[in-house]
């Protein structure tokens, strides 16, 4: 017994220092029954580089972002509806009667409560009696954000445009009534004002200087997609200056954050918590997010929102000329070094541009000493000028530059700075056809110009879109009424070393310019 007692301390030490296999060997050598306890490895832990979190930004800005509920007596817009169903490209009513989903909705409460258009509940009928006021119903949901501590909210025009009553829901669930201060369809912006009698101070955000934003910068979008308020998504600025065809002032930021229906009017933030853009549209074949969303840049929104808050409307400058881009061919035909600026197709009657002496065929190359890039650039910059201000407009005319002083007018109604014409082509006068073989066209003279009677399908004229029935009104800004007059202008251009001539053409869709090669033959 003494030997065993003497061994036990050394055995204890062995248990503390030996492996499982060694412990078993010691136990067997001493004659003690072996009892082995299984040993487990530690949980996996990876020391990875720490990725920056958006949590601080989100925590700071979330109180300023709201959901916007719109009510009206109008038919609801599917654009921002939370319950707009689509089953394989078919609407609910197009599903077969024996479809499982249709049976389910019919058996459990009726389909009306699930309809995207949220019409009156047919189970109970429309109980409005004669002479009663129309019942307001939800028609749209979107997003917005406080831009001032006294309750002004920015959102999209298309969210509130048909609304009669507005409710904003804060991130803590508080619901507040709001009134429409003003809206602007051209930039799709609107401003609401919370009707809060206790004059509380709201958490608000400010606009960023989006000129400092670069493609590839991180952004965070906060909004109310599909009615799920307070939703946060992140992505990058994937492109700038996008024109999506929504109007003359298109200059969108493209972001790849997950933006969906209901995000409209919501803010996109930089990592400093400033608004770089206002979400307004998505590109989606399916109606859901595919990583291409468009936001109104802060530089555009800032001025519009300030005007709406102050006056409830936006007064824009107006030049009153129909314009088109300057292609490389057009630049060559006019002797311009760069394919930039805005080519004047036609000044509108009694417009500021016409009164100042701007003529068709002029190329507007600069405004107030700053070069004009293209028609969109000109339209945006003219719109930003206060009506009544006199500005210097540089134009290229007859092979040289000159400056014209123009008093900017006020853009009225829904007209746009670069208007389009829709004059139909006049019928051709009876006359013998004369061929302009070098250009691949035949023309018939008339009082209003030369009507194109045929176009060689293999010619440059055909490649540039000239068609039978089009009317040629001028060449190199000189009015022409016969083939001889056309040839005289072309010969003069050749002597000046020009390789192209600029033709003004009237079509059923309006007037435009195209440049045709004249150095062959």
Task: Throw out a few tags for this protein.
single chain; 521 residues; alpha+beta; Thrombin, subunit H; seven-stranded antiparallel sheet; six-stranded antiparallel β-barrel; 30% strand; elongated; serine protease; serine-type endopeptidase activity; PDZ
Descriptive report:
InterPro entries: PDZ, PDZ_sf, Pept_S1C_Do, Peptidase_S1_PA, Peptidase_S1C. With 521 residues, the chain is of the alpha+beta class. The protein folds into four domains: 1-36, no CATH class; 56-83 and 118-126 and 133-314, Thrombin, subunit H (Beta Barrel), CATH 2.40.10; 317-410, Roll (Pdz3 Domain), CATH 2.30.42.10; 434-517, Pdz3 Domain (Roll). The protein has eleven helices and 27 strands. The longest helix is centred in the first third of the chain and has 16 residues, at 2-17. The model is unreliable at 1-8, 17-21, 23-29, 76-92, 101-105, 107-131 and 413-435 (pLDDT under 50).
**DSSP helix count?**
11
* Overall 3D shape: elongated
- Supply the CATH architecture of the largest domain: Beta Barrel
- How big a fraction of the residues is strand? 25-35%
CATH topology of the largest domain: Thrombin, subunit H
Pfam families: PDZ_2, Trypsin_2
Region (Disordered): 111-142, 447-467
Biased composition (Basic and acidic residues): 114-129
Active site: 158 (charge relay system), 188 (charge relay system), 264 (charge relay system)
């Amino acid at each position: 017994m003494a030997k065993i007692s003497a061994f036990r301390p050394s055995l204890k030490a062995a248990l503390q220092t030996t492996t499982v296999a060694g412990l078993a060997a010691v136990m067997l050598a001493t004659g003690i029954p072996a009892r082995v306890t299984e040993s487990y490895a530690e949980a996996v832990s990876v020391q990875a580089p720490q990725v920056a979190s958006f949590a601080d930004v989100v925590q700071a800005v979330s109180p300023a972002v709201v959901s916007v509920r719109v009510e009206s007596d109008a038919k609801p817009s599917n654009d921002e509806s939370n319950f707009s169903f689509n089953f394989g490209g078919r609407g609910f009513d197009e599903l077969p009667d024996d479809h499982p989903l249709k049976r389910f909705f019919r058996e459990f409460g009726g389909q009306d409560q699930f309809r995207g258009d949220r019409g009156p509940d047919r189970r109970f009928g429309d109980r409005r009696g004669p002479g009663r006021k129309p019942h307001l119903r939800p028609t749209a949901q979107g997003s917005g954000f406080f831009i001032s501590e006294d309750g002004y909210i920015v959102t999209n025009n298309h969210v509130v445009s048909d609304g009669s009553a507005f409710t904003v829901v804060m991130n803590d669930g508080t619901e507040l009534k709001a009134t429409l201060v003003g809206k602007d369809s051209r930039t799709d912006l609107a401003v609401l004002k919370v009707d809060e009698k206790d004059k509380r101070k709201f958490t608000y955000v400010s606009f960023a200087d989006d000129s400092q934003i670069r493609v590839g910068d991180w952004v965070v979008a906060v909004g109310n997609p599909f009615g799920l308020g307070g939703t946060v998504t992140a992505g990058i600025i994937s492109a700038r200056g996008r024109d999506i065809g929504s109007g003359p002032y298109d200059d969108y930021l493209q972001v790849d954050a997950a933006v969906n229906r209901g995000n409209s009017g919501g803010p996109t933030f930089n990592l400093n918590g400033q608004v770089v853009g206002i979400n307004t549209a998505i590109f989606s074949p399916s109606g859901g997010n595919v990583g291409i969303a468009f936001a109104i840049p802060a530089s555009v929104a800032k001025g519009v929102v300030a005007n709406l808050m102050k006056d409830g409307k936006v007064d824009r400058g107006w030049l009153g000329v129909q314009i088109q881009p300057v292609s490389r061919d057009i630049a060559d035909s006019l002797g311009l070094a760069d394919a930039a600026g805005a080519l004047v197709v036609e000044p509108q009657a009694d417009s500021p541009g016409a009164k100042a002496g701007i003529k068709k065929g002029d190329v507007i190359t600069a405004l107030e000493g700053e070069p004009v890039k293209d028609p969109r650039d000109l339209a945006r910059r003219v719109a930003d000028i206060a009506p009544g201000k006199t500005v210097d407009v540089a134009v290229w005319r007859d092979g040289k530059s000159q400056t014209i002083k123009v008093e900017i007018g006020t853009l009225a109604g829904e007209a746009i700075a670069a208007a389009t014409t829709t004059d139909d082509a006049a019928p051709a006068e009876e006359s013998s056809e004369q061929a302009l073989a070098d250009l691949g066209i035949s023309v018939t003279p008339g009082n209003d110009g030369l009507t194109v009677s045929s176009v060689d399908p293999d010619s440059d004229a055909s490649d540039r879109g000239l068609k039978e029935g089009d009317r040629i009104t001028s060449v190199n800004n000189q009015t022409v009424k016969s083939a001889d007059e056309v040839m005289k202008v072309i010969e003069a251009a050749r002597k000046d070393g020009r390789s192209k001539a600029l033709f003004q053409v009237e079509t059923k869709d309006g007037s435009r310019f195209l440049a045709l090669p004249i150095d062959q033959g």
